[in-house]
Write a structure and sequence with these properties.
Pfam families: Inositol_P (PF00459). The chain is of the alpha+beta class. The chain is built from seven helices and 15 strands.
């Protein structure tokens, strides 16, 4: 008999409210910086992949985020795109009840090129997944924010996905891995096309998931990512009523090895395309 998952422990409402307010303030700060600097003389340093840049803006925003979080939430570890685990924090999660996860510029290659498609992402997490999450979309002057059990908002306006929805004629978002297309990606695109669904690679995992939350896309499939790429957007997805599934098709608030975020009526079909693509690759 499979044990039922342990429900999330009650979190002090005042703590959630404070985390929500601080995260929103940091998202607004980041949006202003990204708009002011994108595509304007940025000097990227290539790392393992030529499209995985580290920029001065990313480092500056992450330092600012860490400084504010250290003041507001002392002792809570911070994980980030630019600096990994905060040196002053305990190793790994270190028994801490909460942790922060930040990607200061999600979609750095777009940012460097001046393409208007990148984001700032921040989430506070516990053992059960995101507690608070924000995604700043600077070019559309939007701050998307959510807190567990309190719903999701876009610039203060509540957002909730409808239960139904037509897949045909819709869009599915995905992203490349560090090394290029993920195994079975070509087959997945073929499966989607057969169902008259388009596939888009836009260069920001956080914004790919957010498009599902906003109803612009029917699903997002990510085969490879880091926690900070997706944690903020997964908070939005859960609170807006999207299906958040792991590679096996199981509900999971923070999948670790492949994820599917979908409108409720599209989840089963899109997961079937993904599963079939994997079977062709491994068969």
């Amino acid at each position: 008999m499979t044990a039922l998952p342990t429900p999330p422990a009650q979190i002090e409402p005042a703590l959630v409210s404070r985390a929500f307010e601080v995260a929103g303030r940091l998202a607004n700060d980041a949006a202003d910086v990204i708009i002011a600097t994108a595509g304007r003389g940025a000097r990227p340093e290539p790392t393992e992949s030529p499209f995985d840049w580290v920029t001065d803006t990313g480092r500056t925003l992450e330092r600012h985020t860490r400084r504010i979080l250290a003041d507001e939430f002392p002792g809570t570890p911070v994980f980030g795109e630019e600096f990994g685990e905060e040196p002053s924090g305990p190793p790994q999660q270190g028994g801490a009840r909460f942790r922060w996860s930040v990607d200061p510029v999600d979609g750095t290659a777009n940012y460097v090129a001046g393409l208007p498609w990148c984001a700032y992402s921040l989430a506070m997490l516990d053992a059960h997944g995101p507690v608070v999450g924000v995604v700043a979309d600077p070019y559309r002057t939007q701050i998307y924010a959510a807190a567990r059990g309190r719903g999701m908002r876009a610039n203060g306006t509540p957002v909730r996905l409808p239960e139904g929805g037509e897949i045909r004629g819709g869009i599915v978002c995905t992203e490349l891995t560090r090394n290029g297309p993920w195994p079975g990606m070509d087959r997945f695109i073929t499966n989607a096309a057969s169902a008259q669904v388009g596939v888009r690679l836009l260069g920001s995992p956080a914004l790919a998931i957010t498009q599902v939350v906003l109803g612009h896309a029917v699903a997002a499939v990510l085969d490879d990512y880091q926690e900070w790429d997706v944690a903020g957007a997964l908070a939005l997805a859960t609170e807006a009523g999207a299906a958040v599934l792991n590679r096996r098709g199981e509900p999971d608030p923070l999948p670790r090895d492949g994820l599917l975020v979908a409108a409720p009526g599209a989840a089963a079909e899109v997961h079937r395309w993904w599963l079939q693509a994997a079977e062709v690759t491994t068969g």
